[in-house]
Here is the input.
Amino acid sequence: MLRQMASALTRDEELRTPGRSEARATGALLLTGAGLVALSLSLPHPSGANTPVLIAIAAGMALSGLALWLLARRVPFPVIHLALAAAAVLSGVLTYESGVAAGQYGAINVWVTLVAAYFFPRRVAVAYLLWILLAYGVTLASTESTAGYSPLTRWLFTAISLTVVMTLTSAIVARRARADQRARRFFDLSHDMLCTSNLDGYFVEVNAAWGRLGYTPEEMRSIPFIDLVHPDDRKRTEAEATKLFKGVETVGFENRYRAKDGSWHWLRWSAVLSPDEQLLYGRATDVTELKRVESERENLLVEVEALARSDSLTGLPNRRALDEQLPREMARARRAESDLCLAIFDLDHFKAYNDTHGHLAGDDMLRRCAMAWDSELRGEDTIVRFGGEEFLIVLPDTSPEQATAILERLRAVTPGGQTCSAGLACWDYAEAAEDLVGRADSALYRAKAAGRDQVVEAPRS
Here is the structure.
């Protein structure tokens, strides 16, 4: 019998891992058994009972039970099994010392059977049942009074009762284990990163999807989850956890988690608190790739927007950019009551230059002019390729005299010995942007009609 029980316990895989629930259940059993002795002694009991021994056993059970309860996290399984086996023996000793096998201490055997059947595999529960029946048989054979029943009758009724208790409990546990196993399969099959965590900040369960971070489940459970969060995201994460602890469900929260190789993964969270279990249930989706694609798309949009506002030949802003900037400069000039001038530049005889040197040389000349003129302007000025060989220049906070001087400087740095004409118009704070551009264009036309290679200022409207 002892060899069979030892063999079953040795095969029990849980022997290698401490179990808090099992230790506390065993501790509660011993404490309750001590209380049962105290209750029995406080009520009328057989006169032949050995009270000092009963009190000593009860005290030992109480101390052992309290130690198991308080040290539950650090109690290894061999100690738990030893305590349960001892409880069955103590039940027999209590019965023997009470002088009558009337069954009041038999409740301890029922509790041992329940604990064994609930927490351990069926083969272990059967080993405990055999051990209990062996100890109880020895007790019945040694006790003077069996309260009117033969020892065999009491033993058979006890054997039947405990077998029923063990069978029903084991069946219930097995059914629950199958349900848990089915749930675990779904848990592990999910592509989302599912987890539970306790209120101390540690993961309790993680599914296989967390493997993409490179940690084993044991490593995940040993690290406070806040230690895996990116330093820049910790305050937000702690604030979100505080709301979660208060019962506010988390939806769509994003933070970065450190993988084992040092890389960072963006996770999008949904989580809820289970107050009864004191557990947080969470689902995280790895959106690192999505974030990368979004970043690339945003950068591409910025580039497209820049291209949409830039001239492909010269790299200068184009007319679309002018349509956005000129109204802003006009509004700024009105607020500050400052001057605003606008000029249109045109290379003289550019068609003849193209015909003589070719369009590629003409494009190169336009690029050289754009670079020379742009480098000569002030930081607040803007030059825009207006179309063909025409360029438009916006000169904020500039008087007509200052604008003329700037335009003469630009004409002087025109490369390749080319000349250019310019039409200048100063805003009167009333006309629309297109009217201001129209006056500058008319002034340019007059400059060309007057022989080119000059600056002509448009009269005020």
Summary: The CA atoms of residues 258 and 264 lie 5 Å apart.
